[in-house]
Amino acid sequence: MMDLHTFCRGCPMCEVHVHFEGTLEDNQAELIASRNDIKLTRPRILDMRPGFQYSSLQDFLDPYYEACSVLLYENDFRDVAYEFLKKQSAGNVRHTDMFFDPQAHISRTNPRTGRKITFGTVIRGIRKGIKDANRDFGVTCNLVMCILRHLTEKDALECFAQAVPYLKWITALGLDSGERGNPPRKFKRVFALARACGLPVRAHAGEEGPAAYIWQTLKVLKGTIIDHGVACVDDEALMVYLRDNQIPLTMCSLSSLRLRVINTLAQYPVGRLLLFGLLVTLNSDDPAYFGGYLKDVLIATAEAQNLTIHDIYKLARNSWLASYCTDAQKSAGIADLDDFYKLALTPALTAVA
Ligand code: ES4
Ligand code: ZN
């Protein structure tokens, strides 16, 4: 039988919860800052000391959005997406549903031109990175536009209006940023608008907020996916609802560890929720910040939770089911995963090893 590490590293899967802005690595930010001839203001390098933990979500997000200030031109956005998808390909992560936060960019001014960065610059750049990565590595990527919940409903509606000419490039609408005090219902109208435009919707809920925010995502926003959802463990009826309706939960263990939602990886409820029958997936969230890309997250979590190869197989299978891939893409991905799983269980593999 194949060992757990080899299985995690090799299994074909999807990532369904990762933020474009959270894939910006220090060295890449430095490179882009230098070619744009701007100064890099990144308190973040200090924050990456081993063992450093952020004290709250907003405490993490403030420098996180500041780090984006190096991204000025279409090509900057293109390069970040391209380099990330190259890494996904190297880890056999064949498809990614990627969040991006237009409001973190369209509020900024290019210091070299004095002009605002436009929605078009952001999305055309990211699209180009996705197209080039597809050509060079065969990976695919869909874009999920996120609303920043710490801003107002008016800001959200204005952002959505700017997205309208580009809806053909946007697969779904999401909600992220600091959860506490910003319940999903605050954005009921913009989410209704997105659904009227034919977009599926989802929200970060129950990451640091209560189980009630998960209910609101389902019932008020009419979300079909819950991002994080850790707090569902506090509400038995909600767990049963999520299981019976097979609502995907896109969980991010290393993120919750770094943001002190949990104190140790062993406490993260992914193994427990898997056993309960929920459609859970594991994801990296902000890989440049939380200490690992998807396969690193999978291995660290599997070790801490004593997960089996079958558990990893389930998580990988769920990742295909939770993705916005076409049915044909899902069937092909799951067939490849099934072949890999059968190979992993072959007794001869132990003999060879
Ligand atoms: C995020 Cl960890 C986390 N939570 C909420 N919003 C986010 N945006 C980027 N990372
Ligand atoms: Zn997230």
Q: Explain this structure to me?
A:
- The chain is of the alpha/beta class and 353 residues long.
- The chain has a single domain, classed as Metal-dependent hydrolases (TIM Barrel), CATH 3.20.20.
- It is built from 18 helices and eight strands.
- The chain has helices at residues 4-10, 26-35, 44-47, 57-67, 74-90, 103-106, 119-137, 153-163, 188-196, 211-219, 236-244, 253-258, 270-276, 287-290, 294-305, 309-322, 327-345, 348-352, and strands at 13-19, 93-100, 140-148, 172-176, 202-205, 225-228, 249-251, 280-282.
- Strands 1-2-3-4 form a four-stranded parallel sheet. Strands 5-6-7-8 form a four-stranded parallel sheet.
- Helix 1 runs antiparallel to helix 15 (294-305), helix 5 runs parallel beside helix 7 (119-137) and helix 16 packs antiparallel against helix 17.
- The N and C termini lie close together (9 Å).
- The model has no long low-confidence stretch (mean pLDDT 94).
- 6-chloro-9H-purine binds at residues 19, 22, 57, 176-177, 204, 207, 255, 285-286.
What labels describe this entry?
353 residues, TIM Barrel, four-stranded parallel sheet, 18 helices, binds 6-chloro-9H-purine, binds zinc ion
- What is the ordering of alpha helices and beta strands? HEHHHHEHHEHEHEHEHEHHEHHHHH
Which CATH architecture is right? Alpha-Beta Barrel
* Major beta sheet, strand line-up: 1-2-3-4
| Helix/strand structural class | alpha/beta
Major sheet details: 4 strands, parallel
What is the helix fraction of residues, given as a range? 40-55%
Query: How many structural domains does the protein architecture include?
Result: 1
Number of DSSP helical runs: 18
CATH class: Alpha Beta
Radius of gyration: 20 Å
Q: What proportion of the residues form beta strands (DSSP E)?
A: 5-15%
Uncertain regions: pLDDT < 50 for 5+ in a row?
A: none
Mean pLDDT: 94
Distance between the termini: 9 Å
Estimate the global geometry from the Cα principal axes.
Answer: globular
What is the number of E strands? 8
The CATH fourth-level homologous superfamily: Metal-dependent hydrolases
According to CATH, the fold-level topology is: TIM Barrel
